[in-house]
Every structure is written in structure tokens, then in C-alpha cells.
Amino acid sequence: MCLEHAREFFWSFTTILFHLYDQEVVQEDAILRWDDEKKDADESDKTFVKQAEKFIQWLREAPEEDDDEDKERKRLVAASAFDVRSQL
């Protein structure tokens, strides 16, 4: 994707990534591996990683959930932190 066109998605990328994570389409490990793979990449390749930086940091720091109640609590905290509550 051309960087100029990628800018059109800046506003929504973290929301999309959150929903993919929340609906278990994309696993936490995959997101964290993607972030790790982009650490030494060119700046243009880090465009979306930078956009999702706070979400990725939250994934790294969030405690593991043990049951459905913990999972729901984690989901609501993330939704609140990334301002996607209205879209849940």
C-alpha cells in the first residue's frame, strides 16, 4: 500500500485492530510479533505500528485473563482506553 493512501486509514486503524483482537480474529501473539518484526524496519513500514503504539503497549502490560469475566473486564478497559466504547 502506498504511504499516501495509508494515511487515509490512520484515524481508524487502532479501532479496526482492536475489533479484530476483540473478536478473536487476530491473536495477541500475532500483534506483538508484528510489532517486534517492525522494530528495525524503515520508517515508512512503521506507519501503522506507530498508529497502534498505545494499544500494543496495553497488550504487553495487560494481565492475562483467567476466565470469561476477566476477559470481559480486559475488553472493557481496552475499549475505554482506545475510545471504541461507542462501537462495541
Automatic annotation (TrEMBL):
InterPro entries recorded: ARM-type_fold, eIF2B_epsilon, W2_domain
SMART domains: eIF5C
GO MF, one annotated term: guanyl-nucleotide exchange factor activity
Coiled coil feature spans: none
Boundaries of every W2 domain copy: 1-69
Pfam families: W2
Any single Gene Ontology cellular-component annotation: eukaryotic translation initiation factor 2B complex
Family matches, as PROSITE patterns: W2 (PS51363)
Top-level taxon: Eukaryota
Protein name per UniProt: W2 domain containing protein
Organism phylogeny: Eukaryota, Viridiplantae, Streptophyta, Embryophyta, Tracheophyta
